[in-house]
Amino acid sequence: MTPFVQARGIGKSFGGLKALDGVDLDIHQGEVLALLGDNGAGKSTFVKILAGAQPQSRGEIRIEGRPVAFASPHDAARAGIATIYQELALSENLNVVENVFLGREVVRRVLGFPWLRRRAMRQRVDTLLRELDAHIPDPLARVGGMSGGQRQAVAIARALDQGGRLVIMDEPTAALAVAETRKVLKLVRQLAARNCAVILISHNIGDVFEVADRMAVFRRGRKIAERQRAATTPDEIVALITGAHPDARTADLAA
Ligand SMILES: Nc1ncnc2c1ncn2[C@@H]1O[C@H](COP(=O)(O)OP(=O)(O)O)[C@@H](O)[C@H]1O
Ligand SMILES: [Mg+2]
User: Fold this and answer.
1) From ligand 1's centre to the CA of 45, what distance in Å?
2) Residue 86 has what pLDDT?
């Protein structure tokens, strides 16, 4: 099966600094791929390129086998790539339904006048939240009063409704309490169960081992290792991140 994303030889330079160098990575639908690495390893830069937020300096991205060149996050969204940023970009004063449909309200024209299809939107949100098994008792309540985990659920529902087939989450649980983190990890698995591809960036090795099917370790802009979860251990991954692992040392010498 063709991977949903094939990244080949991705490089990114900021002036003289090589933030990414020759990164090859595949991402499959129905799979949670974790990106790991020390601060500055290039993880965020890599997902920003996938999300159309910045162009690569070198290399090629293929989506379902076709080369793409995203000029903006909007282009990436049209190809089914949704990013959930830490800031989440939700509107505090709007309710859950309004946030899911923000800027793309379902409109029906009646005698030439647009009418928001409130009932249709509400039903769609109910369905999404149920499928995600997200606990939001009142989708007509303001998002401003909700917990971090509930907000993540709203952002994920929004991404799914926009036709997201790859959902990218860059440190989604960094600011969350333990119970909220559990809920977000559950959402991550729900996305994969819906055949989405998920890229999760996290520093929490325990979280990563709980939800990821596969892990890729970045170091100084290079992908130095890729492991199936079943074929590795937290100790090995930590050693790869810190540079203590022989594979990391080999990569350092080759750089
Ligand atoms: N817009 C930018 N301008 C200059 N340097 C950048 C920019 N974005 C990232 N970098 C640099 O690229 C490297 C990789 O950063 P980043 O992708 O944010 O790493 P990570 O997410 O793994 O912590 C770092 O050295 C960082 O300082
Ligand atoms: Mg980062």
Assistant:
1) 6
2) 62
